[in-house]
Amino acid sequence: MITEGPIDSLFLDNAVALAGADANIKINHEQCTMIFDNELRNKEIIDRMISAVDKKFNLVVWPKTLKYKDINDIIISGKTSTEIQTLISNNTYSGLTALQHINNWKGI
């Protein structure tokens, strides 16, 4: 898993951080899941999510009901790492399915 922020990666098993949302990484994209912050009104994040799908990454699209900005905020709210891992697992998509979820998430 690749998170946007370094603190977010600390709460997940087998995760690293981009320390920002931009990176040009050379890895097997199909084996990675990109996890961006939950900022549905942020055009840059949306563009990066679409780019990740185009590069064949798996992608977490947070449920619209999630009111927290990132994994750190979810932890602060009282959720456990296990609960977050389950949330991530249940909301990971790829390809056209990911694009459909992005469009629903951002409000189109």
Question: Could you characterize what this model shows?
Answer:
- With 108 residues, the protein is of the alpha/beta class.
- It is 41% helix and 11% strand.
- The chain contains five helices and five strands, in the order βαββαβααβα.
- It has a five-stranded mixed beta sheet.
- It is globular, with a radius of gyration of 13 Å.
- The chain has one domain.
- Helix 2 packs antiparallel against helix 5.
Helix-strand blueprint:
Layout: E1 2-3, H1 6-9, E2 16-17, E3 33-35, H2 43-54, E4 58-60, H3 71-76, H4 81-90, E5 92-93, H5 95-106
Parallel strand pairs: 1-2, 1-3, 3-4
Antiparallel strand pairs: 4-5
Helix pairs in contact: 2-5
Q: Helical element count?
A: 5
Choose one word for the global shape: globular
Give the proportion of residues in helices: 40-55%
Provide the gyration radius in Å.
Answer: 13 Å
Estimate nothing, just give the exact number of structural domains. 1
Task: Report how far the terminal alpha carbons are from each other.
Answer: 27 Å
Structural key phrases:
alpha/beta; 41% helix; globular; single chain; five-stranded mixed beta sheet; 5 strands
Summarize the structure.
By secondary structure, the protein is an alpha/beta fold.
